[in-house]
Amino acid sequence: MDHDLISRLAHADHPIAAPVSDDSVHRLLRRGIHRADARLLDLGCGTAEWLVRALSAYPGVRADGVDLSEGALARAGERAAQLAVQDRLTLHRKDAAVFRSAHSYDLVLSVGATHAFGGLLPTLAAVRPLLAPGGRVLVGEGIWEREPSQEAIKMLGEFADLRTTVDRVAADGWTPVHGHVSTRQELDDYEWSWTGSLASWALDHPDDPDAEEALSTAAEHRDEWLRVYRDAFGFACLVLRRTAD
Ligand SMILES: C[S@@+](CC[C@H](N)C(=O)[O-])C[C@H]1O[C@@H](n2cnc3c(N)ncnc32)[C@H](O)[C@@H]1O
């Protein structure tokens, strides 16, 4: 089954592709958007859910979204049109790691996409030249809440605990001005939703040629989550400013 189709079905009931609730998204955006006419950039925007919510809530804001996925960007455009914010959203099908712009941005987001840059600090290094003076970064990254197994590291990548993550960011010249650590409920909601929406679609479409694979993909993902990483994986969103420039 095409990865994009799996992602579309799995995110049907949780369009933010990260373990962050709708309330937390709004709270983080409020901390990140510090001027009424802010220009936003989302690197690895997926279906641009963060941006369309920001554009809906803040009528003076404009935004650019960057992603490699044609399908995700198409859905971003549809969603922006549904909410009548498409005039203030520009979508770029590009590699976020090499995205350049003539503009600078008041808020640069990158949530669940630091792998596109090779990790958290390389993400911040890439964001830095894109930031307007006084600009903020809203970055969402995995953390380890408990010692991970080797299998979990192999599956999800190299993360650190919250304290080490924040220490590294601070040592790199950034000051956290807000943060959010996903709660157990947010982490579980995201996984139940991902696996449950995909499985439900399969059960609702038993004659579809993809139904069997969708059901087994959901079951495999659910098993990996419960067996390999649920006990150790966490997720943190940090709102950062340059400490000095
Ligand atoms: C976990 S999703 C997060 C999407 C979105 N930030 C959100 O929170 O809803 C990661 C996204 O990063 C995108 N991505 C991965 N590598 C990328 C790259 N090199 N350039 C641009 N986008 C990339 C994927 O296509 C995917 O949409």
TrEMBL record:
This is Methyltransferase domain-containing protein. The lineage of its organism: Bacteria, Bacillati, Actinomycetota, Actinomycetes, Kitasatosporales. SUPFAM superfamilies: S-adenosyl-L-methionine-dependent methyltransferases. CDD domains: AdoMet_MTases. PANTHER family: CYCLOPROPANE-FATTY-ACYL-PHOSPHOLIPID SYNTHASE (PTHR43667), FATTY ACID C-METHYL TRANSFERASE (PTHR43667:SF2). The keyword Transferase applies. Keywords: Methyltransferase, Transferase. Pfam families: Methyltransf_12 (PF08242).
